[in-house]
Design brief:
124 residues, 2 domains, 5 helices, 59% helix
Length: 124
């Protein structure tokens, strides 16, 4: 399995975040199947011309998000996180909807705030 990552130094997005986002997207899309072993931190850092700490930070973020799991000295693997990620997102959406209602926001206002937040995150 080949990891296809492109880091754009002029993107205005931190390299670790570019790496995190690309691995997460490839895992969600199935390009990196569950159980796929990712390159070592040092190996990927060398391949991409990044500092090892940058790759390690991306891997930690991916592990925190449930996208990958680290199995000690055996390496880092793509986790079966699709369902878990959807459940967590659904829970966050439910909590937001309940909070927005308690604050007296209309459905349209609550939806507009979500759209603004999504635009800010996804259109970086």
């Amino acid at each position: 399995m080949t990891l296809k990552i492109a880091i754009d130094g002029d993107a205005g997005i931190a390299p670790y975040e570019q790496l995190r986002a690309q691995i997460a997207e490839q895992a969600r899309a199935g390009a990196l199947p569950v159980g796929c072993r990712l390159p070592t931190v040092r190996g990927l850092a060398e391949e991409l011309g990044l500092a090892a700490n940058t790759v390690a930070k991306a891997y930690r973020a991916l592990e925190s998000d449930g996208v990958v799991e680290t199995r000690g000295r055996n390496g880092t693997f793509v986790a079966a996180a699709g369902d878990a990620a959807r459940r967590e997102a659904a829970g966050a959406a439910q909590a937001y909807a309940e909070r927005a209602r308690r604050l007296g926001l209309s459905r349209a206002d609550a939806r507009a705030l979500v759209e603004d937040a999504l635009r800010a995150v996804y259109e970086v």
